[in-house]
Design goal:
single chain; globular; eight-stranded parallel β-sheet
């Protein structure tokens, strides 16, 4: 059983169970001090929100129970009516919106916040079938490459496909074709709806046909029957803080599919040829023959194709919803599917980070509550929030960066995650750039410790919101490398689909760098080609949207856009450092760095000396808050340890475990715990 399926089975259970660097720092006395009382006693705005899809029954009792447990708000929706005995229909009953208004009002009376969840179950965009109702043309579509079985002059379209969109010889020379026939073709490209083997069929919530997220009209239908309905029917809509969209994705890459399917697909929309020509000044058909290539060879045509897919998806889904939210006074948030694996970012989104940048509050989900699994699992849990934190920092959208925490109960273990493990995992997630929790972790799983858990991360959220990350190290997001080597497979992208050597090396290099830098008490953030293009060169630094780096690490990058490489050369010439690790483009003259962690330790100094029993398990993040340097220090060990902290001047230590603060710089840190250190005198 896949973790995503386990997650949604857990969701079902839940519903039934709950009815600058130093040179950039300001003078140590600058800025306002941290609010000591708010740190000790976080407000509801700082605290965890509960994903509470059903509020049927005694609303006051439900909210009183959540408030007592330490929740600061909820993520909710109109009742789903998905029970077999329930004859009502999703979003069709005025009484459901009246009930939602009651919930919103009751939350307001308690000073609790509320977000809106935009689907019945998941993944978002189907509106429980309403999006496609009467519009079969809106369903997700893909195209396959079929080969002629032998010589012949006429090739007939198989009945399982809708039409032929291109036909050619093996060398790419076009041949005559229409929707149903092709003459003298070696390869024929045919379109059909996508369902079998896709996430639409295999998601844990249950199978249902899914709209085409490259099609603006299809997404407009989803907006009309969901977002417009909530806006029109909910009197308290203006009290909603954000909307949560859940795991929308393309359906051309198989997901949760262990049995080989007959064909491989790439995503399709009728607008693609025109968009391709607009973006690249080149006909799509000229690149068609390389798109299904299985050779271990970089293909720039694949990059062009997936850049086009990413742009179409962004305009149709993420961008269209963001614009609706902006026009209606609500923030756009949520998370994407299978964020952990870099190789999945191409088939599911074209470019995941491109989509994440469009959220007002970018988000991620997390399926483990075990910090050791987070740090060392091949599932790459540790990288998932890094992509989201990087997107937030590159766009300056760091006010709220969300994690949906859904630690599958026990996983493969004999027991549930402990309070210590849950807090240890969340500290690591927050260090990656997150500062808001929407939780499927019910309070009963931590019992009397849950209010303490909520307080700890209310404190962390308060400290990190409004803080600017100043860790200096940018990690290049190697999406072009992955795009250029991607080849569709007949089984799930999360079920062992073959990866090229280049994709595998990129993932392994990121994994190794992340672990090595953490143990060296250094931090990093993702940067991409788009951000590098926007960034201003300033004395050996690249800066844009509040983010500044003076080192860029290239993890097994095989190809770069020409403009990106030229900008990096200018960066190096101005004093910046570029490190090539694991692999580099054939045309790159720079040598590979044999020990990047050592090179970075000699280059980057965070200005905080740490002595500990197990220093390799003390992780650090560097920020600037209220004009002062601030360090986020985490004991990522299952054992407690005494940690001594020394900066260049006076500091104050803020203990997230106790809520206390003081000048004492030697701290007894319990297992899996954290402190913040701020410079300067009060």
């Amino acid at each position: 059983m896949t973790t995503r399926l386990m997650k949604r089975l857990f969701l079902t259970f839940l519903l039934s169970a709950v009815g600058v660097t130093a040179s950039m720092a300001q003078p140590s006395g600058a800025g306002s001090p941290v609010d000591k009382d708010r740190f000790a006693h976080p407000t509801n705005a700082d605290r965890i929100y509960m994903l509470q899809h059903s509020t049927a029954g005694d609303v006051d009792a439900i909210l009183d129970r959540l408030s007592a447990a330490g929740f600061g708000g909820i993520v909710t929706n109109a009742e789903w009516h998905n029970g077999k005995s329930d004859k009502n229909f999703y979003l069709q009953n005025d009484s459901d919106f009246a009930h939602l208004d009651k919930v919103i009002a009751s939350l307001g009376e308690r000073g609790m916040g509320v977000w809106l969840y935009d689907e019945c179950g998941y993944p978002s965009a189907s509106a429980n079938g309403l999006t496609l109702l009467g519009h079969p043309e809106y369903e997700a579509r893909g195209f396959a490459e079929l080969r002629a079985e032998g010589p012949g002059t006429v090739w007939n379209r198989p009945g399982t496909f809708e039409k032929i969109i291109f036909a050619c010889k093996d060398d790419g020379t076009p041949v005559p074709f229409d929707a149903n026939h092709a003459e003298g073709a070696d390869r024929v490209y045919v379109v059909r709806p996508l369902f079998e083997g896709s996430h639409a069929q295999n998601c844990g919530w249950g199978p249902r046909h899914y709209p085409n997220l490259l099609d603006k009209a299809a997404v407009a239908s989803f907006i009309s029957c969901t977002y417009d309905k909530y806006y029109d029917k909910t009197k308290g809509f203006g009290k909603l803080e954000a909307v949560f969209t859940d795991e929308p994705s393309l359906m051309s890459g198989y997901v949760n599919c262990t049995v080989p399917m007959p064909y491989t697909f790439l995503p399709w929309t009728e607008e693609m040829p025109a968009k391709y020509l607009q973006m690249h000044g080149r006909e799509l058909w000229k690149d068609m023959p390389v798109l299904f290539s299985r050779e271990e060879r970089f293909e720039e045509g694949k990059v062009r194709f997936w850049q086009t897919v990413s742009q179409l998806m962004n305009e149709a889904y993420f961008g269209q919803i963001e614009k609706w939210c902006a026009a209606h006074g609500i923030k756009f948030s949520g998370h994407c599917l299978l964020e952990e694996g870099l190789a999945m970012h191409t088939p599911l989104y074209g470019n995941l980070v491109r989509q994440l940048k469009t959220f007002d509050y970018p988000g991620v989900d997390m399926l483990t509550g075990d910090p050791e699994a987070y740090k060392f699992s091949s599932a790459d849990y540790a990288l998932a929030p890094r992509y989201v934190g990087g997107a937030a920092r590159m766009t300056g959208k760091t006010d709220r960066v969300m994690v949906e925490i859904c630690p599958i109960q026990g996983g493969d273990r004999d027991s549930d995650f402990t309070f210590a493990e849950e807090r240890g995992t969340m500290d690591l997630i927050f260090r990656a750039g997150i500062n808001h929790i929407n939780s499927y972790l019910v309070s009963s799983r931590l019992g009397d410790d849950f209010p303490h858990y909520s307080a700890i991360f209310g404190r962390c959220a308060y400290m990190l919101r409004g803080a600017r990350w100043t860790g200096r190290i940018g990690m290049f997001y190697p999406i072009e490398t992955v795009q250029g080597y991607y080849c569709p497979e007949k089984i799930g992208v999360n079920n062992g689909a073959r990866l090229s050597e280049a994709e595998t090396l990129a993932e392994e290099t990121l994994r190794t760098l992340n672990r090595g830098l953490a143990a060296a008490q250094l931090d990093w953030t993702f940067v991409d080609s788009e951000w590098i293009g926007e960034a201003v060169l300033d004395g050996g630094s690249l800066s844009a949207n509040g983010l500044s780096v003076d080192v860029v690490v290239m993890p097994a990058v095989r190809w770069l856009p020409a403009g990106t490489r030229e900008k990096l050369r200018e960066f190096e010439n101005s004093g910046g450092l570029v490190l090539w690790v694991g692999a580099k483009p054939d045309s790159e003259a720079s040598a590979l760095c044999p020990d990047p962690v050592a090179a970075l330790r000699s280059r980057v100094d965070y200005g905080l000396r740490i002595r500990a029993d197990r220093p390799e398990s003390v992780f650090v993040g560097l920020y600037e808050k209220d004009g002062r340097k601030m360090w986020y220090v985490i004991n990522s060990s299952p054992e407690g340890q005494k940690v001594s902290l020394k900066a260049r001047g006076p500091v104050r230590v803020w203990n997230t475990f106790t809520g206390e603060n003081g000048r004492k710089t030697t701290v007894d840190m319990p297992p899996y715990s954290s402190v913040f250190v701020t410079e300067g005198k009060d």
